[in-house]
Design goal:
Structural class of chain A: alpha+beta
Order of helices and strands of chain A: HHEEHEEEEH
Mean pLDDT of chain A: 89
Largest interface: A-B, 44 and 44 residues
CATH class of chain A: Alpha Beta
Number of helices of chain A: 4
Strand content of chain A: 35-45%
Strand order of the largest sheet of chain A: 2-1-6-5-4-3
Oligomer: homodimer
Number of domains of chain A: 1
Low-confidence stretches of chain A: 126-141
CATH topology of chain A: Nuclear Transport Factor 2, Chain: A
Shape of chain A: globular
Largest sheet of chain A: 6 strands, mixed
Chain lengths: ~140, ~140
Amino acid sequence: MAADDRQQVTNIVCEFLDAVSRGDRKSILAHHDDKLLMFDFPDTVRGLKDYDDTWDFFFDSQRGPITFEPEELLATVGDRVAFVSCIVHCDGTTAGSFRFRLTVGLVKCDGEWLITHEHHSVPAKEDTFVMPDKREALSHS
Amino acid sequence: MAADDRQQVTNIVCEFLDAVSRGDRKSILAHHDDKLLMFDFPDTVRGLKDYDDTWDFFFDSQRGPITFEPEELLATVGDRVAFVSCIVHCDGTTAGSFRFRLTVGLVKCDGEWLITHEHHSVPAKEDTFVMPDKREALSHS
């Protein structure tokens, strides 16, 4: 790993999130690979065009200044492959203030780090994933 | 990347999933790092002890033979860092048959690949993440 790979990878993820905060659609895509695979909240998204479209939905729901800030960012960086995990605090849309979990996968191509994978999720609250004893308690609440 | 790193990484993820199918608790943990960070369905889990406990919950909900099979597995493998994405078909618990998205991050330590990160999620169906026009339609359905 080159001395500055960790910094480059961290910067790319932070600049991507900052571009969302600023509503800078071009910069959101600045380091994303054409063949990106994204596990988005509602579904799986393949390729940069469909990925870009998901931001139409996001910005359609904007109701004020956007917050899109990483917390607990952890970068694992090799010579050619890296992954980053963090919690993202999002605010400023119809969804209100909430936190989601983000994992980003990156590959170094021709000396440049590119995002090839994103996994976004909110904790599942469906009854399906509640402990059986808690489900029992919930059914009586 | 050594010639067989891709195969080793793929095998570790497939053997982990197969260990879940077989209910082999020891093998589930065979290639997990002590400091694992897991974005689990309901919450964030840190460390191997708490990770192991999540499988108590899983197997408590068992109602028949477990299916835990990867589909569309994609491995991105470098010299020392790798990540894998796949869809997992799960069946045999109180949750019934469903598919979830899995991202696994791995690091090579002393010649051995270890899982240091997992991100599990089901697509979010909350009203929050439904397109505004679809939300309108749903409210009238």
